[in-house]
Amino acid sequence: MLSLLKNKPQLEPWERVVKARTMGRFTSQDVIENIFNTFYELHGDRHYGDDKAIYAGLGKLGDTPVTVIAQQRGRDYPEKIERRNGMVLPEGYRKALRLMKQAEKFSRPIICFIDTPGAFSGMEAEKRGQAEAIARNLFEMSQLTVPVISVILSEGGSGGALALGVANEIYMMENAVFSVISPEGCASILWKDSKLAPQAAKDLKITAADLLSQKIIDKIIPEEASLERTCRNIQKCLKEGLYRNSRLSPTEIREQRIQKFRSIGS
Amino acid sequence: MSYQCDKCGSVQNEQEFKDHYGVCPQCSNYATLNCYERIGLVADAGSFMEIWGNDGFKDPLEFPGYQQKYLAAVEKTGMKEAVVVGEARIQGIRVMLGVMDSRFVMASMGSTVGEKITKAFEYAGDKQLPVILFIASGGARMQEGVVALMQMAKTASSVSQYSQKGGFYVSILTNPTTGGVSASFAMLGDIIMAEPNALIGFAGRRVVEQTLYEKLPDNFQSAEYLLENGFLDAIITREEMRDALSELLYMHKNTVIISKREEKAYA
After folding, report:
1. pLDDT digits over A72-122, tens only?
2. Range of the domain at A109
3. What average pLDDT does the segment A137-151 reach?
4. Can you tell me whether residue B216 is helix, strand or coil?
5. Number of domains, chain B
6. What are the respective helix, strand and coil percentages of chain B, to the nearest 5?
């Protein structure tokens, strides 16, 4: 599949950032509708509320039942406001965690679609423990005994993205970016000028190719001219990933994930 | 050596500073402590033995200007990274003690900080030691990119592994504890304490203000605000810290302690 990437235009990192953020690009919901035979949405964290930035439920990938958890930006402006452009609140992370634990109980693999500029920064998020919610997800996800595969669709913004990213395998779409901080944020902190974001985008090494060579991600999924064909690529990668994991025991699945993260920066 | 209070400007000599645990006698402001001062306040004298003290610079992205920034921090602090970890005793009880020092690149977490925290939990898990961490951090170290981000998952996973073994972990949040560190091992203590008035949060206050266009409460993201909202077990002053820790450690020794008199009564 990598050979499909060979004849693609070589975009600058910043061009990919712009592309990843452009309205009209496929969202998690578009992908979910295309690759799962059925999808049944589930709501709520059982403590506080139902965060619309997390779109989650049960789906069938081929014949395999899976739990699907996605950050959903919204397809038009009214929906973007309702879903806060995919910026998740603590109750969204807690809803995600509830469904992951449920998946584990019923031995269902978990598929996460990451697409967020970052966790929501606001008074309500802080008051309800944004830091605790993200920390708890990292803590609990590391111990799950079912396979977790995370796909970064467009933007993987920092801790807010990682809270759905403690996975056995991480894939990135060809034009997706994944970063510890937004290029604008980095440029304004380091160089006091957010207009230097394109330079920061380069230095931060945030493209799929950069992260594959750093062994942070496992696979780049090629994008095609049509959504259907792009989704076919995603579906194929997910099926292969689930097949690889289906041969591991629950303990091996957990150990593999722990070792994957243990080795980064060691 | 003399110390000047950041808040009211009053000056103390070294002995006064020590006697007051770095708390200003005039205005009660908490001075930032470096890691050695912090260790001196809680560990039994001479008991701290540093481990992995030589773990140093890594530059996975070869990020422009990062090496110079790192070397300047080494020069300023005499440390090799923003966290010091080792074995110590607190009123006789053996512990794994870690202290982050905000003078070193705002104690941001890159691969070396993440690795030392992770190794501390692994070591403590093997030796069945409690873990006491004094935390301060501006968040993940952006010059190390996603490698730094992933240290959040790595450290949280190591706390999780340690917890599975029954280990006891106390995190003490000091000023400031923010970003990727607050959203990983800082918030995962069995007991989470903070120093009075410490700034604790995920997003920076200015970012929150820009998102909201409304006034935030005065105590927003203070230790007191977190206590009120259910995210801390207690706020402990510096003066009480050592005793509070030794009490907590004693209560987690997992042994039933029966006095001679009780033993007789039950026999």
Report:
1. 999 999 999 999 999 999 999 999 999 999 999 999 999 999 999 999 999
2. 2-262
3. 98
4. coil
5. 2
6. 40, 20, 35
> Domain count of chain A?
1
Locate tokens 């991480």: which residue?
A: A170
* Residue in A with minimal Cα distance to B210: A122
Cβ B202–A121 below 8 Å, yes or no? yes
Give how far A263 is from chain B: nearest CA, Å.
Answer: 8
Task: Find the CB nearest A122 among B64, B152, B208.
Answer: B208
CB within 8 Å: A264 and B111? yes
A205-228 pLDDT, tens digit per residue, is 999 999 999 999 999 999 999 999
Chain A residue closest to B217 (CA)?
A: A123
Dihedral over alpha carbons B232, A158, A211, A184 (to 10 degrees): -140
Interchain contact, B147 vs A265, CB within 8 Å: yes
Q: Are residues B25 and B49 in the same domain?
A: no
Chain mean position to CA B257: 31
State pLDDT tens for residues B52-82: 999 989 999 999 999 999 999 999 999 999 9
Nearest by CB: A204 against B145, B186, B230 = B145
Please report, for the domain that includes residue B134, its CATH number: 3.90.226.10
* pLDDT tens string A179-199: 999 999 999 999 999 999 999
Residues B43 and B147 in one domain: yes
Q: Please report the DSSP string for B32-87 in residue order.
A: PPPHHHHHHHHSPTT--EEESTT-----TT--TTHHHHHHHHHHHHS-SSSEEEEE
